Fold:
Amino acid sequence: MQLTRVSMLSGKPPGWRRAILDSLYLAMRETFNVPEDDRFMTITEHERDDFVYGADYLGIARSDDLVMIQITVSNTRGVAQKQALFARIAERLAQSPGLRKEDVLINLVETLPENWSFGSGLAQYVEKSG
Amino acid sequence: MQLTRVSMLSGKPPGWRRAILDSLYLAMRETFNVPEDDRFMTITEHERDDFVYGADYLGIARSDDLVMIQITVSNTRGVAQKQALFARIAERLAQSPGLRKEDVLINLVETLPENWSFGSGLAQYVEKSG
Amino acid sequence: MQLTRVSMLSGKPPGWRRAILDSLYLAMRETFNVPEDDRFMTITEHERDDFVYGADYLGIARSDDLVMIQITVSNTRGVAQKQALFARIAERLAQSPGLRKEDVLINLVETLPENWSFGSGLAQYVEKSG
Structure:
C-alpha cells in the first residue's frame, strides 16, 4: 500500500541506488506496518540542470547527494507514526548507502485505501473490507 | 482532468509504450467520464536497479512487464466507479499491448477541481462553475 | 513546503530547462508565500512515444513545448491564491524561457503540513507548531 518515487542526481553506482530502495523498504516495514513484499519503488536520475534544491532551507545543509523521496500511501497513519517513519528512513539511509541525514527529503502523499489496484483489475483494499 | 504517470522497466519498443497510453486513455473515457482529448500522460522508463517491485504481494504473480500507473484526478468519483476503472484498465492493457492483468498496478491520487490549470494561467474548473 | 515535478519532451537546451525552474520558483515566491530557498524541483524529459498530450483540450492550442507541472504543497491555500499562482506561473514562463501560455499545464497535489521531512529525519512543520 505504498508507491515510492526517489529523485536524485545521476552518477551514483547501481549498488548505491539499490541500497537506497532497500533501506526505504526496511524503514517502512519497521514503522509503517508495511507488509512483507509490499514494495513498489522507482528511482529517477536527473542531470544537473533538471534537479534543483535549496541548499540551506530551514538551516539544513544539503549536498548533491540529496534524495527527494515521495511516498504515496493510504491515509491510515497519525502524526507520531509519520515522525517515526521519517526518523527511521534517515537512520537507515545513513547506515546504507551512507547518506548524510541532511540529504534526505521526504514527502508523503495520502490517498484513500480504495484508490489502489495491485493487479488483476481489482481494488484489493475494497474487496478485503467489504 | 487527469495527469497520468506510468513507470516501467526500459527496453520495450515505442509501439508497446504508445499502446499502453492509448489503452489507458480509452479505459478512462469508458469508465471515468474523461472528456475527449483530455489526455496528459507520460511514461518514465527505468533501469533495473531503479525499479523494484514485490513479485508476489497479495498473491499476485508479477513479471518484469509490470507497469506502475499513477493517475492524478479530481475527487469526483465514488468507489464503484474506481473499481470499474481498474477493471477496464486491466482489460484494455490485456488487449493492447498484451499485458498480463497481474502486471497492472494502479494508484489514484485525488485533488480538488480547483487544483488544475490546463493552460493560459487559468483555473478552468473554477471559472466554469463560478 | 513544495516539491515540483516538470515533465516535458526532451530536446531543449539546459538554459531553457533551468529558466523553467527559476521562473516557477519566482512565481511561487510571489503568490504562494514560499520562503526563500524553499525550492525542490525536478524536470523529467521524455521521448515522443512517452509523452502524450491533448492538443486542443478545452479549446487551448498546445504545442510540443508543453510543460506538465505537478506541484505538491501543503493544503494551506484557498482558491484565489491558487488562481494567482497559476496566472503568475504562466506570466513568468512566458517571460523566461518564453513559453506560450497555452503550453503551461499545472496540477496541485495537496498534503498535510505534517507530511514533510526536509532533512535530518524530522517533521519540521510538526515541531514548529508543537
